[in-house]
Specification:
The complex is a heterotrimer. By secondary structure, chain B is mainly α. In chain B, about 70% of the residues lie in helices and about 0% in strands. Chain B contains 14 helices and two strands. In chain C, strands 1-2 form a two-stranded antiparallel ribbon. Classes of the chains: A alpha+beta, B mainly alpha, C mainly alpha.
Chain lengths: ~280, ~400, ~120
């Protein structure tokens, strides 16, 4: 296809520039929107011109800024999970059911998007000494942090994982070559690999028919329900919490959003903030 | 020149047949892995790289080690290395082909391999690794072949080739530096996140690569009547001793930083590798024997190489054992411990140990056999040409 | 030319071998596949001849739009109605049978797209 060839030439040119020492130029070129659009889209697509301006809030140089100015984030209110210990499993089930995440009995083949883990495992930078028993006894819901400065995106050699315009760190399973560099790069251990055909671990009669499965040999992880958020819905895990407000989802770049108001009113922590990844998931402990 | 590879004595053919058999077994195992997925390995979501990538990492070093011959011979005009340099260049070719094969064996979707070029991502270290590995492979094939052809025709090699010879020197350094950068640029993997990884890789490469070349040179002296000369071997041993000591010195520095600073993240992996790490009442220590093997073999090797009596022993048997010890020692360090250890503990501070699967082991052996096969054929050609010139 | 007899014989055998499918089928390409079209809709995203030739490019473009520019809005027009760019949630809603639609031509032309390794075909 013509589009591919021109993209390739553009990147080849950009790499040459990198060789000449113009990394800043390359960042511009690579993150700029492509002027090339195939005939097919033009005929189909009535228009999507707006929303491509770069957002003002970029943290540091080299950080990919979400093009729509959105940066979706989540608050996990662990107090609510402590009040209702059954909630954690409901949330995990809702996520895995919605995204056809397989369930393998052997730990070696395990795939998970969100799960419950001990306080110490989730917050490795926090001390556990003399912590209150309630905190130590209750598990913490973990998921992809959709970092503003994601190391996995930097590591991926094919841009199969990337940050989309809503600030969501997404996966393109069609492009992933399965090198698993992103898994080594993720400092939160949130990525899983399809070691075998995922359909072997799924009940084919109980699938969500609106969302695909994956194939073997690709990496997968929580996608912040990009397929639902793109349609204006809440993520499946948030919906599963009902009105409990145990999970709050919204646009971190909008000062008027609910998530920003809750962040302003409560003390929250992030996982491993010292690594400079700027996670978009916040915890109220 | 290829016709020279087609004439050999029975030992030559039996050896190639043996390697071919191992390669066939591996091919069969790879078909199984291709059809089932990487689930036929011991890897998991917690230890997501295993034998393949650790072998790749080590073999990049073996390939880079050849520069320790190229540099003195071409840059410093050190004539003594005349007969041994070609061994280094051809070793680099076979080691690089093993590296590339290991990467392909490790890919979940090998058929999409070219996406690395179609959708090149210049921020990924893997992109640069692809460039330097293929570049160094190309340079070695080009230089080795052109120079050997010229020698065969009794001519001086063409002047232009020296541009590529000199270019191959920074490339050799870059292949191992970039390979180190695959690891040392990852946040949250404390063991890998160390600026000394690249120098340490280079030091271990400059010991392990030449050590293997010395072992091979001693074998060739017996089986192929090809003597690289005692002076060349002595100089090689000097290089190996210095590089090996520097490598172990760097490992010692890692120990100092970890244990003196007493920061748990910096200590955990070293603790796990050398002493075992306790977690929830269970002792995890499956790599401990390998790491002490590294230490013990290093001491044996360096002693045999340093003591004049063993180094200059008449038939060089101790010299060979010493170099083999260094080579195996550094294989245990980098080809086993470094990559596998880096995944312990996991980012969620759990411990998952890795045990390779039989299928995976056979594939690994097969790739090594493939390297030996290519190396044998290349050396056969090179040595026959040298014999022809002398005759 | 040395061994010209052997070379020419070899070439003939080679040509016969690669054209074997044609001999075997007596030059007949087989019956043209008939695809079952949706009963209650007449229009598709693009005219039929264009769809026949370009549906794979179109799906690639949709894929990149949906995943990469995160454009999931209903901007695909079919007649007066608007649809999402989606194989599973748009195409296969009208073309309710993969076997009677997709597979017909794909089997005939012996292509096996890997769409269905992940995407779910309608239950039939």
């Amino acid at each position: 296809m013509d589009k591919k060839r021109r993209d390739f030439l553009k990147i080849a040119g950009a790499s040459t520039l990198a060789g000449l020492g113009g990394t800043a130029v390359v960042d511009r070129l690579v993150s700029g929107t492509s002027p090339v659009q195939s005939k097919a889209t033009k005929e189909v697509d009535s228009g999507h011109g707006g929303g491509h301006e770069a957002a003002a809030q970029g943290h540091a140089a080299g950080v990919e800024v979400a093009k729509s100015g959105n940066r979706f984030g989540m608050i996990v209110d662990l107090r609510k999970f402590k009040e209702n210990p059954a909630l954690g499993d409901i949330v995990v089930e809702a996520c895995h059911g919605t995204h056809n995440v397989p369930d393998f009995s052997e730990k070696k083949d395990e795939i998970k998007w969100t799960w419950l883990t001990g306080y110490g495992g989730a917050f490795t930078e926090h001390s556990r000494l003399y912590k209150d028993q309630l905190t130590l006894d209750n598990d913490v819901l973990v998921m992809c942090n959709h970092c503003d400065n994601p190391p996995c995106v930097r590591a991926c050699p094919t841009k199969a994982t990337f940050k989309n315009k809503d600030g969501i760190v997404a996966m393109d399973y069609h492009r992933c070559i399965g090198c698993r560099f992103c898994m080594a790069a993720c400092p939160y251990g949130m990525r899983s690999f399809n070691w075998r055909d995922p359909r072997a671990g799924l009940d084919m009669n109980k699938l969500n028919n609106e969302f695909p499965t994956r194939m073997r040999g690709v990496v997968e992880k929580c996608n912040f329900c990009a397929e639902r958020v793109g349609l204006g819905k809440q993520p499946a895990c948030v919906e599963a919490c009902g009105d409990s407000k145990a999970l709050i989802f919204g646009n971190l770049n909008d000062p008027e959003s609910e998530i920003r108001k809750v962040l302003k009113a409560n003390y929250t922590v992030q996982r491993k903030p010292s690594l400079g990844t700027h996670p978009s998931v916040f915890y109220i402990v | 020149m290829f016709e020279k590879a087609l004439k050999g004595n029975n030992y030559y053919w039996v050896w190639l047949a043996f390697l071919g058999a191992l390669m066939s077994i591996a091919a069969f195992c790879y078909v199984r892995q291709f059809n089932y997925g990487l689930g036929l390995t011991g890897m998991s979501r917690d230890v997501s790289w295993g034998l393949y990538i650790s072998q790749f990492t080590f073999l990049v070093g073996v390939a880079a080690g050849g520069v320790m011959l190229v540099l003195p011979y071409y840059v410093h005009n050190y004539k003594v290395f005349g007969r041994i340099t070609i061994l280094g260049e051809f070793l680099a070719i076979s080691a690089l082909l093993m590296c590339l094969t290991f990467i392909v064996a490790d890919l979940g979707q090998p058929l999409r391999m070219l996406n690395v070029i179609f959708y090149a991502q210049p921020r990924s270290m893997l992109f640069y690794d692809m460039i330097v590995l293929n570049g160094y492979l190309f340079l070695n094939i080009l230089c080795g072949w052109v120079i050997l052809t010229a020698e065969r025709n009794g001519e001086h090699p063409p002047k232009w080739i020296y541009f590529f010879v000199y270019l191959s020197i920074p490339f050799a350094v870059s292949i191992h530096t970039v390979t180190a950068m695959l690891y040392c640029g990852l946040p949250g993997r404390h063991f890998w996140l160390s600026a000394i990884v690249a120098p340490r890789f280079l030091a271990s490469a400059f010991a392990a690569g030449p050590a293997l070349i010395v072992v091979i040179a001693l074998i060739l002296r017996r089986v192929a009547n090809y003597d690289v000369g005692k002076e060349a071997l002595n100089k090689m041993v000097t290089i190996i001793i210095y590089a090996a000591i520097i490598n172990v010195f760097f490992v010692g520095l890692e120990f100092f930083v970890g244990y003196y600073s007493d920061i748990p993240g910096h200590k955990h992996t070293l603790q796990y590798l050398f002493f075992g790490l306790e977690h929830h009442g269970h002792m995890y220590n499956n790599l401990v024997p390998y790491m002490w093997g590294f230490v013990v073999l290093f001491i044996i090797g360096i002693t045999l190489l340093s003591v004049p009596y063993t180094r200059n022993n008449k038939n060089d048997i101790w010299l060979g054992i010493g170099c083999a010890s260094i080579f195996i020692s550094f294989w245990l360090d980098k080809g086993v411990g470094f990559v596998l250890g880096g995944f312990v503990p996991t980012p969620l501070e759990e411990i998952v140990e890795y045990y390779p699967n039989v299928n995976e082991i056979f594939i690994t052996i097969g790739v090594w056999a493939m390297g030996a096969f290519i190396l044998t054929v290349l050396y056969k050609i090179a040595i026959d040409v040298e014999h022809e010139i002398e005759a | 030319m040395y061994d010209s007899g052997k070379i020419i014989a070899g070439l003939i055998i080679f040509v016969l071998f690669v054209t074997f499918p044609i001999w075997y089928n007596h030059g007949d390409a087989g019956a043209v596949p008939k695809v079952e079209l949706p009963k209650d809709t007449k229009e598709c995203v693009l005219p039929a001849d264009q769809m026949r030739a370009e549906h794979m490019q179109l799906l690639n473009v949709w894929r990149d739009e949906v995943l990469r520019t995160a454009d999931r809005s209903f901007n695909v027009k079919i007649g007066d109605k608007k649809y999402q760019m989606s194989l599973m949630n748009t195409c296969m809603q009208c073309h309710t049978s993969k076997k009677k639609f997709c597979d017909q031509c794909h089997d005939y032309t012996s292509v096996s797209p890997y769409c269905w390794d992940c995407h779910l075909a309608p239950v039939e």
